Write the structure tokens for this entry.
Amino acid sequence: MCGWIRGRVSFRPLRRRVCRKRAVAIPRALEEPWAPRALLQTFCIPRTTSIRARRLGLTALPLTRGESWSAPARAPLRAEVVATKLGGRRAGQCRERRAAGRGGAERRRRRREQSCSAVRGDARSRRAELDEPFAAPPLPSLPPSCSFSSGRVAPPCCQQLRVARGAWGAPAAPRVARFQKIPNVENETMIPVLTSKRASELAVSEVAGLLQADLQNGLNKSEVSHRRAFHGWNEFDISEDEPLWKKYISQFKNPLIMLLLASAVISILMRQFDDAVSITVAIVIVVTVAFVQEYRSEKSLEELSKLVPPECHCVREGKLEHTLARDLVPGDTVCLSVGDRVPADLRLFEAVDLSVDESSLTGETAPCSKVTAPQPAANGDLASRSNIAFMGTLVRCGKAKGIVIGTGENSEFGEVFKMMQAEEAPKTPLQKSMDLLGKQLSFYSFGIIGIIMLVGWLLGKDILEMFTISVSLAVAAIPEGLPIVVTVTLALGVMRMVKKRAIVKKLPIVETLGCCNVICSDKTGTLTKNEMTVTHILTSDGLHAEVTGVGYNQFGEVIVDGDVVHGFYNPAVSRIVEAGCVCNDAVIRNNTLMGKPTEGALIALAMKMGLDGLQQDYIRKAEYPFSSEQKWMAVKCVHRTQQDRPEICFMKGAYEQVIKYCTTYNSKGQTLALTQQQRDLYQQEKARMGSAGLRVLALASGPELGQLTFLGLVGIIDPPRTGVKEAVTTLIASGVSIKMITGDSQETAIAIASRLGLYSKTSQSVSGEEVDTMEVQHLSQIVPKVAVFYRASPRHKMKIIKSLQKNGAVVAMTGDGVNDAVALKAADIGVAMGQTGTDVCKEAADMILVDDDFQTIMSAIEEGKGIYNNIKNFVRFQLSTSIAALTLISLATLMNFPNPLNAMQILWINIIMDGPPAQSLGVEPVDKDVIRKPPRNWKDSILTKNLILKILVSSIIIVCGTLFVFWRELRDNVITPRDTTMTFTCFVFFDMFNALSSRSQTKSVFEIGLCSNKMFCYAVLGSIMGQLLVIYFPPLQKVFQTESLSILDLLFLLGLTSSVCIVSEIIKKVERSREKVQKNAGSASSSFLEFYPKI
């Protein structure tokens, strides 16, 4: 069959040259399901065709006259073909060859000839006009029974090919239609994307109409393909990361790194290879560490896909299918049951006792009860859309059916994804400070070069020689050890944080905590335990009981009038506990709740009183499940060991509903009629407990639902974590403002904030809706006074953080849910909870609290302040020593003095400046009093005026002392080894005392302890031992050109060089005294500049 067709209609693949004018369509017979496989293979050409063919847009799919095909018909397997010259000579040769060599019936031959002639006639008449692309349905596959070979009788399915009118040989066959342009999918009438807000306001029938969906039978496969072509897969498209080599190269954009690179290049050009090697090694270490840290922390977007379930139950073509969640499209019908994670945003149309845990998305602690009725009052608050099941949330109980309204990035979960994708983490204050330091050092280096060249030119010296000297000095002045010290200091800080149960993912974040002045904390799971707990009981006769303990465990007590109640010691309290325990479906095993949090709180209450076994003492005869409409649950039971006793009903639920079924109440063991006065009293107590942020449940029992006895009220709340209040108090005292951002109601949020000391009478609270209506400028003005933001969604948290950052605040954001991820990424410091936090939250954060202890944040802030102080100590030491060395050499050069130090001695001093003594300053233990100091201003440079002045004072002392020794030894105007040895040793001892005084900017060396930093002690001791070897070891004496010194010489040098430490200690003492005086006077602390205004 293939040979026969090819003999009459020649098809050239698109990989060859395409001829527009000879393009024709394939016969309509290919549409039929019985089309021969060989024929289909002849016509179909892969999509990987030539560029020219793609521009022509030609396809090999047939159309009859007037037919056009919509998007569902364009299957992924789209063939493209061009029919070439239809010469009669080749067709005739094929017919003769087949008739002579293979045989066949005459009638069969004539019909084939007739059909081929018809095709040729169509091709000749239409050849000049068929030049536009068209769209067509996918090619059908051939039945397995169909086979074509010469000499064999074709099966019935293929015999139809020869006799079907209108397909091959009939005169009345329709002309082949013109090629039609493939329509743009976006221009077609497509299924709209419904937002959850709009879908919640519409009736189910309206939603189904808009989505053109069948709620009971679902979609068919062609509709699914059509919609997926427009809406895409139900997944998140994560853009490809840039190559690793690009990420590595980007680390060199740091100004300080670029300055060091320039120094290395200049050192090579000037043949100072030792400097070039040391600078290059420093650059490689710093860049590699920064690259590794960045590479490990860029996974936040990938983790979002983990909350989308891989599989789900979907109704299609009237059948329930188990399919991949990524296959869902808008209009699909999805079935949910207990334990399922919702695969897409669903508009529910059937729901039976459905409760969904939305805490990861909205921050609400308790599962949300779902309904099917329209919610016309639904606003920007996700919690108000009770007929929508959101992607990524978890079904706690019940079952439901819903129609898909949003998939992938078009879901509410996708909104979080898009915000995370668009948000970039800001630079840390330390990175900004280091960038500024690099620019300052560059400016000073060029200044040194210019000044030395100018002075040399004025003195008549050779310009080239002076340029060489000035460049060498500028390169030597650059502290190439600074990046290494910063990296090592931060790394050690990270290691210390691990011991405190905190994981820091990015090194600079440790220091950033030191200048954090605002903490925005999520309530649920961060400040609170996210475990509902009964904290208050009110019996029907007015008795109040307090309940201690937190969480789903037996640890805690029930206290009435100062006495601990256990078992049936107090009948009024015991009856309430019994009703809450029996009318309950939750189970607590190994301190883990299986069921609703509210019911878990009642079981935990029974465990604290030793009455949790009551649940097994009753046999349940009937049950009235809880629903959001009726707002109560009841069970009818009989005692397991006393089944002859009458049945008893237990009820729990909202007070307004339970009280309707009550006719009596219990008072001191007596059953009395429930009067209106008692009802009003209970209503007042319920309102009082509600204003305290408690969730109030009423409990009752009796023989029938209409004849119940009111037992009392219980107040339930998600209590604060242990130790959080103390941490909050300390942080507020140190100048850190803490703001609660939660999705809970105003009453609950304010109640928790008041317990923690965050909210006072002068504080304000703002809702998410109010944040929406405010301009960023207005919000920035009022946000410092706001302590609580309630009913807040992820976009509200973003706006709040941006407003705080606009005011210049360094913001830390804590959280544990998906709804916190975007804010964590946008904040200067993102802090996630390690135990209760989701994977998305952890990956977006900069720091993870392993044990969810809010107190760890206080330790982290303390660590950050200490690290920044250590970096400043190192900068002070190295710059003062470098400036002293440069000044010493520059003065000798400019004043035509002989060089007081030779090349090897300068190299040794450079090693000490960048070596162990300098590095050990980065590991100085954190001062315990640093937490009491206010956060530093992130705009402040490391090189403050106060620090620069201290550096200059130390440098002047070192230069003056060294020149004094050199002048003292050079009285005979002849430089001897003793002269250079005394000068060399003097400078080294000055370095050691300068390092000692640089250990703290404010405290005395004796106050912090001489041996508190063991590494520093070892480094200084090693440097002194090395200096003594250089002086007294003969082989080294030849290398460094030194000679032995007497004990008196050493004592003289020690006394002289200690002056730099003595002056520094005096300055510290004066600063502390002045600060203490001003603190007592209520004024701000002064700087060192205030004591030396003339300088």
